[in-house]
Amino acid sequence: YPRWSPEVQELEMLSSPPLQLNSLVRQVRIDNGQRSESTFKITTYKVGQKLIFEGVSNAYRCSYDFASTNPSTNTQLTFTFELLKLELFMLPFEKLISIAVQDGAKRTVRNLKNLIESS
Fold it and tell me: Hey, what CATH topology would domain 8-117 get?
């Protein structure tokens, strides 16, 4: 995860390994100079098909869907990030937050693409 999301400075399993359905993970991120910490839970985990985690401390959902278009050579990856709820004090900044989330999602997709293509 930190390989395609360099904003992640710390990643710690809070549940016993291995990573699996319902595992809890804590992350510390630095986004545009701002430090944030959150805990998320693996809500869907199908090896080679789908990974979804949802914020426990913050309301967000992040999903990675993998679809083989040609099993021997091609896999389509769909990345989705959703803010499920904004805190009341954040509502006046909804547009700025949306732009920041879109920029972060584009950066993540670009990093994933570069990582996959260099393999």
Answer: Alpha-D-Glucose-1,6-Bisphosphate; Chain A, domain 4 (3.30.530)
What are the tens digits of pLDDT across the range 81-101? 898 988 888 889 889 888 888
Tokens representing residue 49 in the block: 């098909």
Q: Do residues 23 and 13 touch, judged by C-beta distance below 8 A?
A: yes
Tell me the pTM. 0.81
